[in-house]
């Protein structure tokens, strides 16, 4: 894989592996939950409208799509044109990018799980519960925090020294006052 103009390798950091297992567990939970609900409540399955049944299976499908989209974002080569990617920082930037993508899917999946459980409860109770949950706001807030923190971390990893740009060394010169120069010569 490449990031910018440099080759990078996919590394398996412990935090990313844990995030991947959590995401896979959430996806499996959603599919099993939807399957168990339709098996354990045949009376609801027969009575529920087609749209309710489609809505019940929509959340596990979106969760699976989220996993696939995150895999595509992880394995494609990001360009990062607005950052100064060098050979020294390319691997660190790529590792942070992959970790950020894997963390971003968790709040999305938690929101989808909450929505699926709300739909199941609505089907059992007959539609008395609202589809809105405070969890959606919290997950959106966590998602924004993850994105901002990751962007800040990648920016700090790619900061350049003002004296070095494109392999050239620039030396800053200070304006010298003639009076101070004369005083230095006299000493």
Task: Furnish the topology, listing elements before pairings.
Layout: E1 2-3, E2 6-7, H1 14-40, H2 42-47, H3 50-75, H4 90-125, H5 134-157, E3 164-165, E4 168-169, H6 178-186
Antiparallel strand pairs: 1-2, 3-4
Coarse shape = elongated
- Portion in helices: 55-70%
SSE string, helices as H and strands as E: EEHHHHHEEH
Cα Rg? 26 Å
Task: For this entry, give a set of tags.
4 strands, two-stranded antiparallel ribbon, 6 helices, 187 residues, mainly alpha
Account of the protein in words:
There is one protein chain. With 187 residues, the protein is mostly helical. The protein has one domain (2-162). The protein has 6 helices and 4 strands; from the N terminus they run E-E-H-H-H-H-H-E-E-H. It has helices spanning 14-40, 42-47, 50-75, 90-125, 134-157, 178-186, and strands spanning 2-3, 6-7, 164-165, 168-169. The strands form 2 sheets. Strands 1-2 form a two-stranded antiparallel sheet. A two-stranded antiparallel sheet has the order 3-4. Strand 1 (2-3) and strand 2 (6-7) form a beta hairpin. Helix 1 packs antiparallel against helix 3 (50-75), helix 1 packs parallel to helix 4 and helix 3 (50-75) runs antiparallel to helix 4. The longest helix is centred in the middle third of the chain and has 36 residues, at 90-125. The chain is elongated. The model has no long low-confidence stretch (mean pLDDT 81).
């Amino acid at each position: 894989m490449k990031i910018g103009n440099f080759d990078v390798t996919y590394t398996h950091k412990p935090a990313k592996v844990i995030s991947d297992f959590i995401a896979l567990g959430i996806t499996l939970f959603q599919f099993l939950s939807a399957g168990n609900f339709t098996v354990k409540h045949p009376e609801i399955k027969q009575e529920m409208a087609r749209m309710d049944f489609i809505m019940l299976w929509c959340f596990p499908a979106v969760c699976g799509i989220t996993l696939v989209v995150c895999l595509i974002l992880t394995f494609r080569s990001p360009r990062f044109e607005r950052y100064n990617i060098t050979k020294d920082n390319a691997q660190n930037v790529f590792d942070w990018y992959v970790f950020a993508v894997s963390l971003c899917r968790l709040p999305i999946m938690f929101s989808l799980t909450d929505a699926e459980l709300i739909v199941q409860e609505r089907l059992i109770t007959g539609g008395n519960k609202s589809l809105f949950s405070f969890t959606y706001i919290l997950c959106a807030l966590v998602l924004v925090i993850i994105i901002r923190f990751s962007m800040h971390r990648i920016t700090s990893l790619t900061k350049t020294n003002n004296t070095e740009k494109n392999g050239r060394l620039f030396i800053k010169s200070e304006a010298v006052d003639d009076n101070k120069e004369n005083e230095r010569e006299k000493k």
